[in-house]
Amino acid sequence: MEKIRYLLLLTLIALTSSLVASAYDPSPLQDFCVAINNPVDGVFVNGKFCKDPKQVKADDFFYPGLNKPGNTAATPLGFAVTPVAVDQLAGLNTLGISFARLDFAPYGLNPPHTHPRGTEILVVVEGSLFVGFVASNQNNNTLFTKVLNPGDVFVFPIGQIHFQLNVGEGKAFAFAGLSSQNPGVITIANAVFGSKPPIRVDLLAKAFQVDKSVINYLQKQFS
């Protein structure tokens, strides 16, 4: 348990240090802006209304349960994420950070995806993860990869396509900090082959330089 606490503290310190140097979300102009869904008597700030400061409580800045693993059996990828963004923790509103727990079954995969509004810093707590990201066209789509073990940290720059794969025979989990209260996520395969309505088959066949039957098959998998 002490090991987990130490790794979590390490992640938070590293994330906080990077945010002090350069935060992506706008800097707040008040002590806090606890998000509320009810606009009555609220002030609209950065996508959320602010709760009256006189009604703010300690629970507005509290989220329990990251000691519990996510259900990796719920998807065929063997992966589960427990997010702590502004929708889960109202006190994060305007603060420019969020957090997540990532759980992996043996050989579980967090597939290629991107966070359009946040850099991610990840620390492995248990197991071994093969992680990496692909740079943009500007940098020749260079792939950067590493195998991470407990205590290892890796950074995924904002907007870059990245992934994590459990390469161990047992379970694995990690904590991730992100430099946005709502970093967003775009899973590449879901977006390309599972869009609603679907992207034209002939367009995707030409883009990926494959037969239309391949695109039809992939769209059925993600429909």
Automatic annotation (TrEMBL):
<feature type="disulfide bond">
    <location>
        <begin position="33"/>
        <end position="50"/>
    </location>
</feature>
<feature type="binding site">
    <location>
        <position position="120"/>
    </location>
    <ligand>
        <name>oxalate</name>
    </ligand>
</feature>
<feature type="binding site">
    <location>
        <position position="115"/>
    </location>
    <ligand>
        <name>Mn(2+)</name>
    </ligand>
</feature>
<dbReference type="InterPro" id="IPR006045">
    <property type="entry name" value="Cupin_1"/>
</dbReference>
<keyword id="KW-0732">Signal</keyword>
<protein>
    <recommendedName>
        <fullName>Germin-like protein</fullName>
    </recommendedName>
</protein>
<keyword id="KW-0479">Metal-binding</keyword>
<feature type="binding site">
    <location>
        <position position="115"/>
    </location>
    <ligand>
        <name>oxalate</name>
    </ligand>
</feature>
<keyword id="KW-0464">Manganese</keyword>
<comment type="function">
    <text>May play a role in plant defense. Probably has no oxalate oxidase activity even if the active site is conserved.</text>
</comment>
<dbReference type="InterPro" id="IPR001929">
    <property type="entry name" value="Germin"/>
</dbReference>
<feature type="binding site">
    <location>
        <position position="113"/>
    </location>
    <ligand>
        <name>Mn(2+)</name>
    </ligand>
</feature>
<dbReference type="Pfam" id="PF00190">
    <property type="entry name" value="Cupin_1"/>
</dbReference>
<feature type="signal peptide">
    <location>
        <begin position="1"/>
        <end position="23"/>
    </location>
</feature>
<keyword id="KW-0325">Glycoprotein</keyword>
<dbReference type="InterPro" id="IPR011051">
    <property type="entry name" value="RmlC_Cupin_sf"/>
</dbReference>
<feature type="binding site">
    <location>
        <position position="120"/>
    </location>
    <ligand>
        <name>Mn(2+)</name>
    </ligand>
</feature>
<feature type="binding site">
    <location>
        <position position="110"/>
    </location>
    <ligand>
        <name>oxalate</name>
    </ligand>
</feature>
<feature type="domain" description="Cupin type-1">
    <location>
        <begin position="64"/>
        <end position="216"/>
    </location>
</feature>
<dbReference type="InterPro" id="IPR019780">
    <property type="entry name" value="Germin_Mn-BS"/>
</dbReference>
<comment type="similarity">
    <text>Belongs to the germin family.</text>
</comment>
<keyword id="KW-0052">Apoplast</keyword>
<dbReference type="GO" id="GO:0030145">
    <property type="term" value="F:manganese ion binding"/>
</dbReference>
<dbReference type="InterPro" id="IPR014710">
    <property type="entry name" value="RmlC-like_jellyroll"/>
</dbReference>
<feature type="binding site">
    <location>
        <position position="162"/>
    </location>
    <ligand>
        <name>Mn(2+)</name>
    </ligand>
</feature>
<keyword id="KW-0964">Secreted</keyword>
<dbReference type="GO" id="GO:0048046">
    <property type="term" value="C:apoplast"/>
</dbReference>
<keyword id="KW-1015">Disulfide bond</keyword>
